[in-house]
Amino acid sequence: TVALDLTVPVLLARFVDGALEAAPLQDLLILAGAFIVASIGTSALAASATYLGARIGWGIANDLRVVAARKILSLDLDYHTGTNPGALIERVDGDITAVAQVFSHFAVKVVGAALLLVGIVVVSFVEHPVAGWTVVGFLVVVSGALWLTRAVAVGASELERGASGKLYGFIEEHLGAIDDLRGNGAGETAMERFRAVMDEYTTVGIRTWMVRSLIWVTSIGLFNAAAVLALGVGSSLALSGSITIGTALLIYQYMTKLEGPVEEITNQTQELQKAAAGLGRLDQILATDPSVPRDGDQPLPPGPLAVHVDAVDFAYETSQVLYDLDLRFDPGTRVGLLGRTGSGKTTLTKLLARLADPVAGSISVGGIDLRDVEQASLGPRIATVPQDVQIFAGTVRQNVTYFDDSIDPRIVRSALEEIGLGNWLDGLPSGIDTLVGADGIGLSSGEAQLLAFARAYLLDPGLVILDEPSSRVDPATESLLAGAIERLTHQRTAVIIAHRLETVKAVDRIVVLEAGRVVEDGPREALAADPSSRFARMLE
Asked: Do 329 and 335 touch, CB atoms closer than 8 A?
């Protein structure tokens, strides 16, 4: 492309000189034909290079998105609790998009522009030393000027990306809390805060735009000066007889051609700076190591899983939550985990699901220390149904299978019927292929909870963890939920956190936590019959 781009002005110069000197028509036709072929060839090759660069660049960017998303998903719950999801979206989308622009264009355009500059300098010197030195002098001046203005833009671009991340984080956070904001009349307060975030983003954006405009204005002024300079030098040399009119035209064309590669190098350098800022933020994520190592290699055994909690302590940073916990659950035991808010119930279930590791002691499931269990075995064998169920925009089937279309629809329907959603499913317009909205729009709290039960049932786990399964349902639905819990936990080890004691009516064993310690542990029937037990007092 560069070779043809350099050839086009030479052919035009030779044509002009030939026409002025009354060259044979055949020679002029050959020059004209060559000019047309070279011009079309330049455009075709440039388009091909751009296409290939974009294919390679976006392929790399999409691979990088997968790497970043997988890394983010591998990080622990504590990391996500302390990190705004909107900011993570900006990292995976906004920053990698900036990187993709560099991958798509930087190598092709910068190398091409550099080759073109070198070619223009060489050909200019071949035509006349004065022309060559004029080009070199102009390049030195324009490069220095643009480099100085570009340096100012680097910090502005970093601030702009940071303000963009803050804005998206704010939007995501408040859209997620839309019901609370409306229900408590906090909409106007949220809008005031939104205006403040937008003011910051706008101020930073205007400042960055002004810096970029400075570069653009400087560039336009310099290249207009270059055109005048080329006309002056070419005309002077042509009038003195040192060069032909065609060569003067050649010098003018080459000087005006300098604008493209110089601006390309400047623009791509700016893009590189923006991408570098994005890569820096992305690198912080990629360099973050999970606090829970995932290097175990032992699969969990089939069937109901035994649980052994051995002298476990756990703390969040400086605040200790669990103290010297010792618990043993035989395979197939259903355990009701009770206690006041803050007693450590949810923390214990996080440890059982290996969302965190104890700071002291160990937890074994199925006779294997959880730290030695392979990651691929944890999800299918230990199923957790959280208190706040997440429903995705998609079909009922996709929500139950987590969008795994390889699972037979008949198996999905069977799981839903087993959980007690058969009649509900028959009433849907398209059965398991009926669309539901994100966050459970169109579903009751009980239906959403039962869908989450069906997800767990489909896995056929050996240990089921239910966190407050009846906290968001009405008493009528609670009876339906009790039947679903019975079927989900049948012949499986189960740990059920509950505040409503009706939820643990059918469990085999009760464990009561208080301030991170086990204060009561025993068979449910025996504790219920003992008037001095805490559980009996709770029932009373």
From this structure: yes
Identity at 434, one-letter amino acid code: T
DSSP structure string for 215-281: HHHHHHHHHHHHHHHHHHHHHHHHHTTSS-HHHHHHHHHHHHHTHHHHHHHHHHHHHHHHHHHHHHH
Q: Which residue, among 304, 345, 306, 335, has the nearest Cα to 503 in the 3D structure?
A: 335
CA–CA separation, 126 and 137 (whole Å): 16
Give rounded-to-5 percent helix, strand, coil for the chain.
Answer: 65, 10, 20
Q: Which two structure tokens, joined as six digits, stand for 425?
A: 């499913």
Please give the Cα distance from 399 to 381 (Å, whole number).
Answer: 19
**Residue 24 burial by CB count (10 A; 0-12/13-18/19+): exposed, middle or buried?**
exposed
Q: In a 3-state reduction of DSSP, which class is residue 481?
A: helix
Task: Count CA atoms within 13 Å of residue 145 on its CB side.
Answer: 18
Least confident residue range of 41-50, 154-163, 229-238: 154-163
Contacts of 451 (CB under 8 A, 6+ apart): 389, 391, 396, 399, 400, 416, 421, 443
Cα distance between residue 202 and residue 182, in whole Å: 27
Cα separation, 417 vs 423, in Å, equals 8
Q: How far apart are CA 390 and CA 460, in angstroms?
A: 20
pLDDT per residue as tens digits for the range 167-209: 888 887 788 778 778 877 888 888 888 999 899 889 888 888 8
Q: Which helix (H) or strand (E) holds 47?
A: helix 25-74
The mean pLDDT value of the chain amounts to 85
- Start-to-end CA distance of the chain, whole Å, equals 87
How high is the pLDDT of residue 121? 87
Q: State the amino acid at position 66 in one-letter form.
A: V
CA separation for the pair 255, 137 (Å, rounded): 11
Q: What is the mean pLDDT of residues 517-524?
A: 93
> How far apart (Å, rounded) are the C-alpha atoms in residues 205 and 121?
38
Q: Is 405 exposed, middle or buried (0-12, 13-18, 19+ CB in 10 A)?
A: exposed
> What's the mean pLDDT in 121-125?
86
Q: Are 514 and 343 in contact (CB under 8 A)?
A: yes
Sign of the torsion formed by the C-alpha atoms of 122, 124, 130 and 134: negative
Handedness of CA 283, 285, 288, 293 (dihedral sign): negative
Q: What is the C-alpha to C-alpha distance for residues 473 and 106, in angstroms, rounded to an integer?
A: 56
Neighbours of 111 (CB within 10 A): 13
Structure tokens at 218: 């400087």
CA separation for the pair 387, 412 (Å, rounded): 22
Residue 9 CA, chain-centre distance (Å), reads 47
